[in-house]
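Dear colleagues,

As part of the handover before I leave the project, I'm documenting each prediction I ran so the next person doesn't have to rerun anything. This entry is a single chain, and its sequence is reproduced below.
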Amino acid sequence: MKKLLVVITVFVLSLNVFAAVNADVESPFIKVAEEAGPAVVSIEAKGKQSMGIDPYFEDFFRRFFGEIPQQNREFQSLGTGFIFDEEGYIITNYHVVENASNINVTMTNDNSFEAKYIGGDSDLDLAILKIETDRKLPTVELGDSDNLKIGQWAIAIGNPLGFSHTITTGVVSAFNRKIQKPDGSGYYVDLIQTDAAINPGNSGGPLLDIHGRVIGINTVIVNPTQGVNLGFAIPINLAKRFAYSLIEDGSFQRAYLGVYYGDVNESLQKALGLKVSKGAYINDVVDGSAADKAGIKAGDVITKVGNNDIEDGAELASVLRTYKAGEEVTITVNRNGEKLELNVVLGKAEDVAKETSESYFGLKVRNLQNSDYNKLDLSKDIKGIVIEEVTNQNYIYGVKAGDVISQIAINGNYHNISNVEDWEEIASSIEKNSYVALIIHRQNIRYVVKFFYK
């Protein structure tokens, strides 16, 4: 009996000792949540998307009914963002606000604001919003994603599945991850991988370090329905370049390399005797381009851009889209078995591809280039112009960056669009109160998008 009492006494004393360990120490995550949390906002985007009719039935409807029927489907998108500037600028994902005509932002104190869409990029999946208020707004500090280390703490704050301001923790699991886009149009590249739980609704929210600084923007989830907890975030340094360029210059000037390329595959490797089995094969180089000035030659195989390995042409295009014109990057090529590292100062896309100086119907467009056929998965017989950016989402529903406009119909009259000059001439001459339809191509599928020009 005495032995039993001794054991119980020792056990009780042990519990008291354990309870006293770190009694006055708080989790560092509490401080991160308190400091960064107020600047994280929930985003509700609403709008309509135009759904075109199947092309096979288009002639039938035009012949018997005179007009091509379309449906405008209302949608609502929920996501997350964060205030990074006291003037009210907010970063989020492009897919959260894509095609939205109304964007509402709600803060932790339940204050709600209608947000203005400043600009976005579907390839980078980044968008900038702005809210107007006389009140002092909380902000979150932007960190440096170039100095991350695998294994360091990662804290995600967002609104998963509609549950506001949820905090999850994990670590930075890996860098330079590549994920194919849902529509198959390319890749998200140079992503940060984390095991901090990220779910639908977290999109656009911050991934923070242990000091409460933003290191990434939560964007992609892999197989969320299968219990796999893999989340990916856009590095904050890329987002900073995009955001400040958009705010200060009004646009994000895309980098341009100036090469025509294809994929390295087994048959090409054997036919040409290439010394590498993957990469982007350079068919030709544009005279006077950044590639030409750096010494890249036809027949080279690009295997690496910066820290990103290049497996095919689509990945080369995706990686280049993350750079701003004027940036310097090291490009690794294989030339007849010799590995060369070339320093390239990237140029501007409009150096060779003219863009419209004026935005018609909220669309900024440019000439279609040879490299676009591979990048946009287009048939070589398609001619037209590429939508570079949707600058005003309130005008036309159903179009997005990367769509190719081949024709425009005005009150029943069709006009082919072969280049920017055609577009400017026709778009500038459209009279008010006209019925207009754009014939666009997206991954070799033909769509019709109509609107009434007031």
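Confidence is low (pLDDT under 50) at residues 52-68. The chain has three domains: 29-249, 259-350, 354-453.

All the best with the project,
I.
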